[in-house]
Fold this sequence. Notes:
Order of helices and strands: EHEEHHHEEEHE
Strand content: 15-25%
Number of strands: 7
Number of helices: 5
Helix content: 25-40%
Mean pLDDT: 88
Low-confidence stretches: none
Oligomer: single chain
Distance between the termini: 27 Å
Radius of gyration: 18 Å
Largest sheet: 3 strands, antiparallel
Shape: flat
Amino acid sequence: MVIHLFLTEDDLKLISLFNIESDDDDYLKINKNVMLMNQTHILDDVALVLGLKDKVIRGTEEDALGGAYPDEVEKYMLDTYNYIKKNMFLIETLLHQKVASGIKPGHYRCFDNDLIWTTTYEISDFDEYKDEDGNYDFTKCDITTKEMREFANDMKQRPPLDKIEIKIKE
């Protein structure tokens, strides 16, 4: 079976703050329940890492349970956090294989029986189709590639907080 990972810039920001613990002399672990290093309140931690602290609802910053955020911001932060948490093992295998070349926002795939990752595309591959508002227009090119369609599908399944439009030929 083919496994797919779509990593955004925000995913990479969260990954960089994994809380790695020493279990004993032989093991390192990432505790999925204590995933980030700060661990004050999950939404506040994620907001801090993603640069969304300014979205906190005024007057809730000092609440005992952490700040409150507008519904769409809270949903985006939790979806991003949970995607990383759910795919932690796969992300770790990808990180170890790409340590020399690095990981960029994009789509990665492998087979479940070998976990040898290949890059399907990097988001920056499509910069020439991006306008000043962050929207993508693939209708201007002669051929719509498989990667363009996969990118459009990935962005539909995991949309960014700031809504973007992707135009693609059917």
